[in-house]
Amino acid sequence: MAEFEPKIIAFVCNWCTYTGADLTGTSRIKHATNVRIIRLPCTGRIDFMLLMKAFARGADGVIVSGCHPNDCHYTSGNFHARRRWILFRSLLNFMGVDARRIIFSWVSAAEGAKWAEVVNTAVKEIRALGPYDEYKNLAPIRASWRTEHAG
Amino acid sequence: MSRIGVFVCHCGENISATVDCAGVAEAMSRVPGVVHSVDYKYMCSDPGQTMIKDAIKEKKLDGVVVSACSPHMHEPTFRRACAEAGLNPYLCEMANIREHCSWVHEKSEATTLKAIDLVHKMVEKVKKNQPLYSIKVPVTKTALVLGGGIAGIQAALDIANAGHKVVMVERSPSIGGHMSQLSETFPTLDCSQCILTPRMVEVAQHPNITLYTYSELESMDGFIGNFKVRIRKKARCVDEKLCTGCGLCTTKCPTKKIPSEFNEGLGMRSAIYVPFPQAVPNKPVIDKTQCTFFLKGKCKVCEKVCPTKAIRYDQEDEIIEVDIGAIVLATGFNVLGAEHFPEYGYGRYRDVIQGLQFERIASASGPTSGAIRRPSDGTEPETIVFIACAGSRDEAKGIPYCSKICCMYTAKHAMLYKHKVHHGKAYVFYMDIRAGGKMYEEFVRRAIEEDDVKYIRGRVSRIYEEDGKLIVKGADTLLGHQAIEIRADMVVLASAAVANDGAEELAQKLHVSYDPYHFFAEAHPKLRPVETNTAGIFLAGACQAPRDIPETVSQASGAASKVAALFSQSELTREPVIAVVNRIAPPLYSTCTGCALCVPACPYQAIEMEEIKNRDGVVVKRAAKINPGLCQGCGTCVALCRVKAIDLQGFSNEQVFAELMAL
Amino acid sequence: MIKIAYYPGCSLLGTAREYDESLRAIVKKMGIELVDVPDWNCCGASSAHSLDHDLSVALPGRILMQAESLGLEDLVVPCAACYSRLMMARHELMEDAALKARVCEMTGMEFRGTVRPINIIEFLQKYSDTFTDKITAPFDKDVACYYGCLLVRPPKVTNFDRPEDPRSMDEIMSLLGSKPVEWDFKVECCGAAHSITRAGLVGKLSSKIIGNAVHRGAQAIIVACPLCHSNLDMRRNFINKAAGRKYDIPVLYITEAVGLAMGIGEKELGLHRHTVKVRYPEKVKVEAEPRPKAAAATKPTPAAQTEQTEEA
Amino acid sequence: MQDKIIQKAKELLSGGAVQVVIGYGQGTGDRVRAIFIQKPEDAGRLIMDGRCVQNLAGYLMKHEVRALGRAAIVARMPVLRSIAQLMYEEQFKDSDVAVIGISDANELVDLPDLNALKEYVRANPLKLTPEEQAEVDRLDAMTREERWAFWMEETSKCIKCYACRASCPMCYCARCTVEVNQPQWISVPSHDLGNLEWHIMRAMHLAGRCVNCGECTRACPVGIPLRLLNQRIIADIADNFGEEEDYALAAFKPDDKEDFIR
User: Fold this and answer.
1) C223 shares a domain with C255
2) Are residues C170 and C110 part of one domain?
3) What is the CATH number of the domain that holds C177?
4) Which tens digits make up the pLDDT trace of C119-176?
5) Interface contact A96-D191, CB threshold 8 A
6) Complex prediction ipTM
7) What are the strands, taking DSSP E only, across A5-110?
């Protein structure tokens, strides 16, 4: 059976990690294709419900990444995000949701190599954890348009 | 039903090398709501943009997705093209299938499928986009220049000559920066004081420029065009209006044994001092950490001798608030300190000095008034060894980069030494000579051929002192690979150029990003070298990377032109990516519950509570309201608001949700 | 009773027997028990890693794995060359999983990386309290501490002290009551293995080292590596020939200096095995060389009974 | 104790200080329910005993009760905490509410105005009782799979009647996000996904606001121990952010500790 290819959705901040991912591109650092990046102005903008809905959408793993503390373009967006993540991760863990599947990181605009490494490690870890069927079986999930129409 | 156009770019073959662009375009044509889906070799080219404009007009598109490079690259380009075709620019989104897809994956079906996902999710997002209109914001036509070196001086003069007000803040008692410490400058050997001092005087006398020396940036708030800046003017203990600059106090001051920072510790200065003769402003400063009055409470000699009674011991630091429209960062660089070279004995042997110290020795206004003398015993050195790349290009010292200016000033130093001590022997240990500027290579050749400077290609491993001579152990990798030893009288290290101390704190105060070496980060290394990622803050000179004077001056003028462009319009159009608290029909007026939990979360204090009145003027409800002038669109309040009463234009809940659900 | 794993290495049972004897003498007084690594083998020294990379990691790897069976965390390795090979092997085994698999398969043992090799200076630093209060005859000589090349390099792997201007041995010697001199050849090469093939080269290089130490007024040179000792002591004839003068400055192991300071007899410390007789030349008054303020002064010696000679 | 309350109620009503007193009254059978006394002579109907635990603060937010004019409320500790939190969220002006405070030691507490109430609540910060902490720890001790099974079992009982929302004084939002369908944040049906998402959102939206009064658990017709979720967050806030006055998610410390961000 072909090796399990995890579906991973990444919520990243525009000023640091998205630009860092751009640098990964300009430096041509190859990495796994499993991650789809969603750009938001700041980690402060990442609502906990987005992470929850990502799993509802059939994601096997979620990456959340933004500016290092003190480097936020908006001064404190990442500090608020960090507090939110501390509480949300603990709640999910308390309810038995597999918090290991949400990977949090700080990646600056100068860390192209680190972004590639975060992606590769995430894919390796999520592949080891296998598909998140436990969550997918909670309710019937409509297949994405692309899987039905564009193979 | 949406009428969306998808334009897939090949980017030459940067994308099409690993992504089947035609396949992506074909797949997108089958997405409900997409009425036009094509691929083309260069979407950002003129024909490419014309394709988009024509498609908008012919097919009456109400949404455009350009799948090509990063939005950081060409989002403005395509949004402008859409605006020209009559489509609201904020109905145009970019899918990054180059940096985030084609460049980082091998050619495979998975890569194309990922590209399809990336484009499809932007199509779903565009369906939820709303037309947005730029926010007009007034611009304060005053620029703040941080740093009084040649970069700050050039930028300030250019902006002032463009007719705008400038506030210059310099940390040390006088402007001039490192250039004022130099003796002559390459490649023409003209004396740095002669070309710099007139500019310094021009700054001091320019009607448009307000100069604050011995001052630092205390804090900065606001945003492009509307910065609120607080400057801390440190107490000089001298009343600048009364002081005539006669210098009597500096000569009469009893404490004279303080190593002068301007002379890099070689010369001495008094407790009340003017850094150098041509200082601008030529007003002394009391060094409170050394002045006996401040240490022991007695002396006051300077007050007694001062003819105009200008001494103010009780002068307090002053905080000055200024409204600023644009900021130019010109805080310059520093040289690597002594503690990094134990193998060269720097700091242990007084005759092992660094480049700036040699500049002071060679300078007419220096401690030896231009005569080349050894700091240890004041004798004239017969042999000087210059060591290039001292700390630069050295991973072990944590400085892998090349400091760019050392090859040139080392050749200059050797030349100055030979001009003053004809019989002297000058050796230069180098790895590679980097003389890429105009007339640079000829300058170095002249040092080698006419002034007989012996260039040895090799590294110096150790320097030790024996019978008063400095034994320089090195290797000559060109002539027979032998180890060589030179008995030198003086050694000059061309030490690495590093960021100024305090650069990191300044960057964090201004929310400007910086690289691992604490040099400030430019918006784009090639296309936007004088701008930072923070709108309204520009860069000039060596605070961004080691740089010589010609480049610094041209970059300063570049930054000045950016400021002049910003100040050319009376008001500024700002991206409408801001948060808005919803307002709906009565009786609810807004879903906001008035809990005000978002108010403290806003880093820009942009949220206040508004009293909503009904038609009879009775206050019906208190709901949050966001000041479009202050909001920067970070979205923290949007994610915080449990009732989803706040939404972020450009990244609204519906847009991000649609983007997520398309995956 | 503190227990420490001990790897003597071939030279400490051969040409550098006095290094082993002096170490065993001082640990007895320090109340530490040395537990030899069972069935230890040669660390490969310079020959292995010039021939076959896997072999050069497997040999020291096997020593580490044998030491792991003792269940002790620190492994004292007096010889700088063995220390360097063991550190390099541990570093590479931790970094390169494929290499680790090959080495484990080659040796038929499992590498867990629980043992950390420490050199003689780290050992003395860690257990300094066990000998500082037993100093009966302070070693009040002006000494030049010679670190050689392998103790401090490569910095990424050993990360021990400052690679260009180390201080740690100087600090231990000042604990013994001696005054380490400021000299410049702390980490310069003594010629190392060329001692066999091109002894003349060793003479030339080592004569510079000895010359600088004497020039700086040292009465003895302290070393922490059998190869440094053999080049500076056993090759003294080549050194004198290269320098064109006779140097009679003695060369001691740091363990010998510690032993002397604790009042242990010269015979028990193996001083009689040295080529250059251990007699200390007169304290030479170093001409008033202008000492800049920034010079790193040595720490004031804790032992009260030796007065601190005021520096020029 | 009961008669002191009746006496205070009479004073307030007859003095015209308040138009209604919200307290506990005899319900059908031996049950207790909230009663709204508007005339001094009806004050006798007020009772106070071990069964009076319902969090009456919720009624203060209903516009029908507000329409009756200025209210006084019989308030044990949880009710006092709810009022303090609602004040923090600017739902009351100082003049809106009078309080008949009852301390844990069953003593009448004189709280003339809402600032005094705030001080009183600040004096004894919210902490889980040892039993509550033990229950939370019992769940923590389980493996992830066991906890998942536990909560799947519990939330599968949920019929999305939203009684927990109706009973909670903190859930006063005019349009709750669970009703938002553009975008549809929370899956509507009460299948496993819908229930899980609803309970995650409810717990997160009460983070730093819930006063652990237990009303939601009491209100739940199918007996889901919802209180545990809020208690987990209360414990997390105390452990990670310490005793902070302001709303946990709108404030931050530059050196908040965490060990999971790479």
Assistant:
1) yes
2) no
3) 3.40.50.11810
4) 999 999 999 888 888 999 999 899 999 998 888 888 888 888 888 889 999 999 999 9
5) no
6) 0.62
7) 8-13, 35-40, 61-66, 102-106
